[in-house]
Model the fold of this input.
Amino acid sequence: MSFSKILPLMLAAAPLGLAAPALAQAPAGPGAGVTTQLPRGAAPSHYAIQVTPDAANLKFSGKATIDVTVAQAMPVLVLNAADLTVSSVTLTPAKGKAVKGSAKIDADAQTVTFDFGKPVAAGTYTLAIDYAGVINTQANGLFALDYTDNAGKAKRALFTQFEAPDARRFVPSFDEPSYKATFDLSAVIPADQLAVSNMPVKGSTDAGTGRKLVTFGTSPKMSSYLLFFGLGELDRATRMAGNTEVGVITGKGNTGKAQLALDASAAILPYYNDYFGVPFPLPKLDNVAGPGQSQFFSAMENWGAIFTFERALLVDPRFTSESTRRTIYSIVAHEMAHQWFGDLVTMAWWDDLWLNEGFASWMATKVTDKLNPEWEMLLSRVGGRERAMTLDALATTHPILQKIHTVDEVNQAFDDITYEKGEAVITMLEGFAGEDAWRSGIRAYMKSHAYGNTVTDDLWKAVEGAGAKGVVGIAHDFTSQPGIPLVKVDSAQCRGGSTLLSLSQGEFSRDRKDKAPLKWNVPVMAQAIGGAQQRLILNGSAQVTLPGCGAYVINAGQTGYYRSLYPEANLRSLVKAFTKLASMDQIGLLADNFQLGLGGYQPIGLALDLVDAVPASASPAVLAEVPDYLDSAHTMLESDKAAQARVAAYASKKLSPVLAGVGYDARAGEGAQVPVLRSALVSTLGGMGDKAVVAEANRRFAALAGNPTALDGPLRNVWLRIIAENADAATWEKLRAMANGAKSDLEKSTTFALLGVAKDEALAKKALDLAMTDEPGKTTSAAIISAVGSEHSMLAVDYVLAHRQQYEAMIDVSARSQAIARLGGNSADPAMAVKLDGYATQYLTPESRKVVDRSIAAIKTRIETRARLKPALVGWFAKK
Done:
């Protein structure tokens, strides 16, 4: 599953908060505290499922025949079921007559108990169930997405989303990852519609009354959460990648917008086949695009039928930015990596979710960099590390490996610790093991555990077996305990042309500096600028000699998951020698030292000196990082408008010449990173009110009156956001009219969401009221409310608490409590912490309030940080 990185981080809005992806659990109520594991003793080997959807009435009927092996006598059979009703059930032994049973649904436990009047003896059986269910309007189980097609007609498509615990909303099932089975799926559907599942269509027969029975091929052995079904007025485009047919499925007339995804799939699949050493085992691999959006996820790795919301898959040249294009490529790569890590080899239980997500994130970055080297994708790993460390620096963090007991805990495990820390730790371990040994270990792991389930130690054993000795100790430290190592340089001495460093280890924290630090075996890579890199494993304290004297770095290449604390003299030297560093180290030093300043480990002025040292001639990829740091400083001073004005003036002085150099519009022959830099500059300067950029936004917006294409291009939504932020009532209504007149659902939903970013509080209230209507669309309303929360967090939180039930109907069950936490999570108001705590106390269980508690911790830390740093920030920018 992928969480889109298109959304801004809370950290970018305010210098300590949770990352934007919605990673939540359901509030108290049915299923909230479900103990997820079923009684042991029975297991499925095969499902034959036939469904008949009634899309117009949002319901469906189903028949399931499950081959079950009972290992020991059981009083009853217990399966998972949610929002289902069972009309009949029979149990037929391999040799014997069918026995009718009764079904008892436990909505709170999300189970159905089948009782056949006497214990079920050990043996093999066929369990036949007739049942019915609901079609949801948010992405849980079988769900409907309403949209307007290219001809302006209202349409409805159906899709499924089963991860983590929602296959049970589609079929009574053993809905746990370790219960792998094969699946035969068939569906009775309108004759003029296209159905898609994990496997190709095997047959289609007339079912009468304008319907047809479509039957799909038998799937490989897989977990229930990977089953997929989609249905609608859809088109499919395909090409071959070796022996596999790769395809894209979209609403009619839109497959051209999925060309990037199709090309990416065809290029990535051969690379993965080679890297993993196990060819993709299914005959086809589709990327299925659905309209709308989710507050919980962007894409899902269903085996052979990846589902992705259109906003994370389709490219529209009228407004798709270069950053979004690269995100789309990375999401395709992430979900395709899951076809091995997660689908072929699946974690035994959700404790090891990171085996799916961390590895898919790491693999996606690797293959995207290999196939598109001009994008310099490895540089993005610094940003991923920082997103993880934002959570990991607080007392409310958790280890990569965490115990999962309830549905709530499964859902909340999809966070930046699982994804981004997972990727960062894997990057570090690959660097320690060596690329060849690491790949050999992965290949052995895949071959040994294909179609099975694993725990994390199975992987470490495979990698060590491939020659990466010592990896287990490091891996255990970084996956089994939370937190961030702090590697400190206690002294540095130049002797005979070499630098002798004395290092010690502590723990970096934003809100628990008084606790005893944890210990890690930390792989350290140190280097004097221009000298050879030196490796060591730090556990406590150590000395290392670096060839050469002068400025040095102790996380050379930025592959280590730790913070690096230098003496001030070395930081001063790094400022002077900044242009001699590799781009990766430049970006890493900026991030590391800014966070050390926020955390109080060193003066914030040292970090700002590094930012100031980035020259206009730096790599565009490095220059693109600078606006975020200035925006963070600007936000931290939001209580002092005069101080904010000084930050904005400095930003204009430093960044405007860079923007003048790259221009507002693309130029022939410009470097691959220039479009990303241009977007960052325009967005940040416009957000700070730079007169020239705001004037340009107004000029282009006014030009729409005579030229409907005046804004078209990769910065369209950047310009529109600047307009929306500064909108008056008349401009706001023009944007609303643009949303309603949009040429596609993707453009419509994006423009509607912009209505929520207005700085004018009266317009923000108007946006909230609009979100409660049907005008924006069922999956867009929550995005409008989130946009209001980015500028008026208290207003948004108060509003949704006053309309809680209506609001929760707008979002996935999986995202409900996280959505409230996110609305208030970027606040620096003590009253917000109190409000979130009151909400959690009233509506959430102890298991389901963990994400709210992280937001509360972030708010409290942000308040302390701003008060402590304000004098230093004011002083630094005053001097500039």
